[in-house]
Amino acid sequence: MVKLAEWRGKEVFRKYGIPLPRGRVARSAEEAESLTRKGEVPLPCVVKAQVLAGGRGKGGAVRFANSPEEARAAAAAILGLSFKDETVKEVLVEEKLPIAKEFYLSVALDRALRLPILIVSARGGVEIESVDDGQIVRQPIDPFPGLSGYQKRRTAEVLGLVGGAAKALDRLLDGLWRLFTAEDAELVEINPLAIVGDALVALDAKVIIEDDAAFRHPEYAEIRDDRTPLEEIAREKEIAFVQLDGNIGVIANGAGLTMATLDVLKEFGGSPGVFLDLGGTDDPKKVTEAFLLMAQAKPKAVFLNIFGGVTRCDTVANGLVAAMGQVSPSDRFPIVARIRGNNEKEGIDILRAAGVTSNPSLKESAQAAVALAKESS
Amino acid sequence: MTVLVDRDTRVVVQGITGHQGTVHARQMKAFGTQVVAGVTPGKGGDEVEGVRVYDSVREAVDRTKANASCIFVPAPWAKDALVEAVDAGIRLCTIVTEHIPFHDMLVMYHYAKAKGTRIIGPNCPGIASPGKAKVGIIPNLVFRPGRVGVISRSGTLTYEIVAGIKDHGLGQSTCIGLGGDPVVGTSFVDALPLFETDPETDLVVLVGEIGGTAEEDAADFLRHHFTKPVVAYIAGRSAPEGKRMGHAGAIITRGKGTAATKVAALEAAGARVARFPYEIPELVAELLAKEGRR
Predict the structure, then answer these.
(1) N or C: chain A end with fewer CB closer than 10 Å?
(2) B131 belongs to a structural domain
(3) Domain at A78, CATH number
(4) Domain that holds residue B19
(5) Which of A170, A193, A220 is the last residue of a domain?
(6) At CA B210, angle to CA B209 and CA B215, rounded to 5?
(7) Which tens digit of pLDDT belongs to each residue from A117-156?
(8) A56, A147, A212, A226: best to mutate for the B interface, most B CBs within 10 A
């Protein structure tokens, strides 16, 4: 998934006519000062760290300013701050508005209903998890009729909006729904949605775009998530690769089998350091790349657990042997292999020729991997 | 009819001329499935693995009386392929294709449902009943005819578990891999009633994963509407706290979705929960013995 920083989310909001405070992004304290001095952002203003984590207000990553000098000082205090493992490189400088009330509004997917769901609460500006269930209204939206008039009227009722504000809400909800579908969003969240006079303004923006729809949204391709450099390389090669804290590398195919493998390793006192899911690939080159990537993560031992379906066992074995030839002796790691399924015999023979034995027992293989990792640490 | 497929199942493979389509058309035939047609627009008249290719599903159905579809069409065109199958009157579609945007799948699911078509998947291994038919990609070597039903959200883990049942000297009635995508055509709750009424199934193995609430919903169903013994397994008990899908996700699933909540719900509903895949066959054998079925 691609999580958009607040300012990017707000750019998307603008495209769909969702009203926003006037604001600009600054990447230095000087820039924040000059934006306010030139009047591009009116004073008083708020300076907000552009990080993906929540809870910025409590963490000192949101500050107020009444003058260009104060805007500069606020930006200087926030930029470079380390906030929940993210370093702040950008701030959003926005006009501070006289807020009458704050609401919560989002559209997300309800997997159980297999429908998008509009979530509304008159209690905004706080973490929605802390709001009592009785104060949250959920309305499923069928994709065929889309968001209906009665659902928008119900939302206005829940928020206690009438007249001009209710009309503004109607337009805003239409924009929110169009955004959710047209941008292939997983989540669109406005918290808080503020009422300012008779107008509604989105004070924050959380937008998450679905990865699988990337083929029709090239505009999001450049946005980097919170991945490690190796995870980033893996993404480019379309290999699922996640770094954890332990020292055993796991190469498996399929998310379920990968998770089951981690569960068994942990049971026997092992500590998975990297897991790499080959998914369904029939390309030995991709397998080789995956092993080379694993070598870069420097595991103490690797547990290869494959059930050949779309990914055939001989493809994996050939990929592994090719990779072993390319890894320098100092970077080699002991391998425990367990390969089963399509072309199992061919795969086992290829591995045996390369000095790797495949053990059909999951339990024994996991125990062997744990022992090897302990030996070589 | 056992569960959804039987000897009268006649499969059309959409995307048969692609690499995966060709490989799995061959495997389905080797399983004993009647693969009666392939569809790839523009390639009508070709032949793949001894199967005639048509330009449209309508034509394939008219000529061959195909009544089930297995879709391998790449994600950007998968929605079109599904709608085409539904409009041609196909009432069972397995979608193997992965990476279909869930916004497309929402439309596909609700369209198919309105027209009376069941979808299995997407991004799934499909369905197979040993000795009868297979519509999907589960490797043939894991099967042996028997009386254990398997319903799983995983892919390869399904193979692992189905093979474990066979290695233990047991066999399967029907196995369904539902797929683990955010929106699936058939969920545990949709599949369980089919096994409850299936005279060929004595026990069901339910394989779940962390995330979502499908297992909790299944537990709720088991408690009220299911009489056969159930062995369950949840993958991901040791997985690190995942990157959460924002706050809205958290309040949709409120207090559900972890391995612990799923295991607790299933146990409370009377299922025996295996901690590891290799415990499953033993639990299955134990419960069948208790029922006097073995």
Answers:
(1) C
(2) no
(3) 3.30.1490.20
(4) 10-120
(5) A220
(6) 65
(7) 999 999 998 888 889 989 999 999 999 999 999 999 999 9
(8) A212
**CATH number of the CATH domain containing A240:** 3.40.50.261
Supply the pTM of this predicted model.
Answer: 0.92
Q: CA of B63, closest CA in chain A: separation in Å?
A: 30
Using alpha carbons, list the distances in angstroms from residue B151 to A248, B7, B209, B289. Answer: 31, 20, 12, 21
Same domain, A241 and A197: no
The residue written with tokens 């038919």 in the block is B133
pLDDT in tens, chain B (294 residues): 579 999 999 999 999 999 999 999 999 999 999 999 999 999 999 999 999 999 999 999 999 999 999 999 999 999 999 999 999 999 999 999 999 999 999 999 999 999 999 999 999 999 999 999 999 999 999 999 999 999 999 889 999 999 999 999 999 999 999 998 999 999 999 999 999 999 999 999 999 988 888 999 999 999 999 999 999 999 988 876 554 444 555 556 666 778 899 999 999 999 999 999 999 999 999 999 998 765
Q: What is the torsional sign of CA A327, A253, B74, A111?
A: negative
Answer whether A245's CB lies under 8 Å from A273's CB. Answer: yes
At A267, which amino acid appears?
E
- Which amino acid type is present at position A56? R
Give the 3-state secondary structure of residue B100.
coil
**A337 pairs with which residues across the strands?**
A304, A358
Residues A261 and A172 in one domain: no
Compute CA B66 distance to the chain's CA centroid, rounded to the nearest angstrom.
Answer: 20
CATH code for position A203: 3.30.470.20
Straight-line distance from the first to the last Cα atom of chain A, in angstroms, rounded to the nearest whole number: 35
Nearest Cβ partner for B247 among A127, A263, A267:
A127
What pLDDT, in 10s, does the model give residues A326-375?
Answer: 888 877 888 999 999 888 999 999 999 998 888 989 999 999 999 999 88
Q: How far apart are CA B145 and CA A135, in angstroms?
A: 53
Last residue of a domain, one of A220, A237, A265: A220
Q: Are B168 and B160 in contact (CB under 8 A)?
A: no
Q: Which residue of B has its CA nearest to A118?
A: B248
Number of domains in chain A: 3
* Binary contact (B159, A341; C-beta < 8 A): yes
CA-to-CA separations, A194 to A98, A137, A168, in angstroms, rounded: 9, 18, 12
- Shared domain check, A135 and A190: yes
Is A104 annotated in the active site?
yes
Domain-located, residue B15: yes
Active-site hit among A6, A16, A104, A183: A104
* A83/A163 same-domain check: no
Cβ partners under 8 Å of residue B139, min gap 6:
A307, A308, A309, A341, A342, B27, B159
